[in-house]
Amino acid sequence: MTTLIEPEEHQALRKAVAAFAHSHRDVANRDLWRRAAELGYIGVNLPEAYGGGGGGITELSLVLEELGTAGNPLLMMIVSPAICGTVIARFGTEAQKREWLPALADGSRLMAFGITEPDAGSNSHRITTTARRDGADWLLTGRKVFVSGVDIADATLIVGRTEDARTGRLKPCLFIVPRDAPGFTRRRIDMELHSEEKQFELVLDDVRLPAEALVGDEDAGLLQLFAGLNPERIMTAAFAIGMGRHALARAVEYARERTVWKVPIGAHQAIAHPLAQAHIELELARLMMQKAAHLYDAGDDAGAGEAANMAKYAAGEACVKAVDQAVHTLGGNGLTREFGLARLITAARVARIAPVSREMILNYVSHQTLGLPKSY
Fold first, then answer.
1. Rounded Cα gap, residues 266 and 258, in angstroms
2. How far is CA 282 from CA 72, 217, 277, 286, 290, in A?
3. How confident is the model at residue 195 (pLDDT cuts 50, 70, 90)?
4. pLDDT tens sequence across 250-267
5. Strand partners, 141
6. Which residues, including other chains, have CB under 8 Å from residue 319's CB and lie 6 or more apart?
7. How many Å separate Cα 184 from the centre of its chain?
8. Residue 1: what pLDDT?
9. Mean pLDDT, to the nearest integer, of 86-113?
């Protein structure tokens, strides 16, 4: 890795996070989050004026990647500082920034993010959660699914839609909904996926919110929404790359030590070459992730959108292949609890599915980048 790709300060940060993560492998998620926050890792992307590290998504994605490589990925880093923290930092009122950013940075508070709906899926234009004015307040009604960490979050940033007074069309808006708001209920979704962070379905039944719950400008919804979705894709790529690197490292270690026919199995090309391919694909995905993060931090939202989608696609594919090859390298041992790889088979597929499917990314690239006509 050269300084052309990653400057010395980023290499130093990567080394420090890696050492921290490996020394805290057996620490519970909540304690790991607290200790990482104390070192400034959780809020590294948030403004210094509000208690953050003053960095960007470049630094935050690096932190998440190294935590994942050590086997300690913190899924809520994608949500709380990356999506919610970024949106509030860019578009929130001064009061919202003072209330939320220092607490998100020091890890004392968490915020979840609700966008997906039962009937909308990847099509955010079909969101039916609506907000309507009632005097000075807002009333929010709708449903959300696959919302991570609602049980441990102090509030959820909800994507709703309001009616444009000029056109009558619905436009997206973002609202901060406290966890104890009347009419705001949650139901845990029973997942096969093994994860510390649980998934929930949310119901909003005329949840009354004060005017100051609206984040940013009511008329700038799409801009504000994608300000959060691009970091989400970049951070999902970091999550996937870290997971893939973790699986690959376990497989390489095993291939060096496991001896059959008097030589380590890693000496055989049938074992060595697929592992080498997995490493190459993870490195390529990381380069695209770094490009996307740099573009985003430079303020190039359009360029970052394309690169973030490509990074998420590349990382998801590379992660699935790395995990599959790692399990295959270990054979029967790859399915045991002792080696801890089998649980990654399901987890790796999340990066292909969420927060947007690989097919929707291919749609994006085909018509946004290549200029091909839409099929939908």
1. 8
2. 18, 39, 9, 6, 12
3. confident
4. 999 999 999 998 999 999
5. 130
6. 240, 241, 243, 244, 282, 348, 351
7. 24
8. 46
9. 97
Mean pLDDT (the chain, rounded): 93
Long-range contacts formed by 21-30: CB under 8 A, 24+ apart:
21/66, 21/67, 21/69, 21/70, 21/71, 21/72, 22/70, 24/72, 25/70, 25/71, 25/72, 27/72, 29/74, 29/196, 29/197, 30/152
Is the pLDDT score of 121 beyond 80? no
Indicate the pLDDT class of residue 168, thresholds 50, 70 and 90.
Answer: low
CB atoms near residue 291 (< 10 Å): 19
How do residues 1-25 score in pLDDT, each as one tens digit? Answer: 445 678 999 999 999 999 999 999 8
User: Look-up: residue for tokens 């199995």?
Assistant: 265
Token look-up 């050492």 returns 19
Lookup: tokens for 296: 């985003």
Nearest to 157 by CA among 127, 198, 112: 112
Q: Within 13 Å of residue 344, how many CA atoms lie on the same side as its CB?
A: 35
| 237 pLDDT more than 90 | yes
Give residue for tokens 């998504």. Answer: 57
Q: Residue 107: its pLDDT value, please? A: 94
Give percent above pLDDT 90 in the chain: 84
Degrees to nearest 5, angle at CA 37 with 31 and 38: 90
Is the pLDDT higher at 180 or at 2? 180
Report the candidate in 36, 27, 119 with the shortest Cα–Cα distance to residue 77: 36
Closest to 293 (Cα-Cα) out of 233, 222, 364, 246: 233
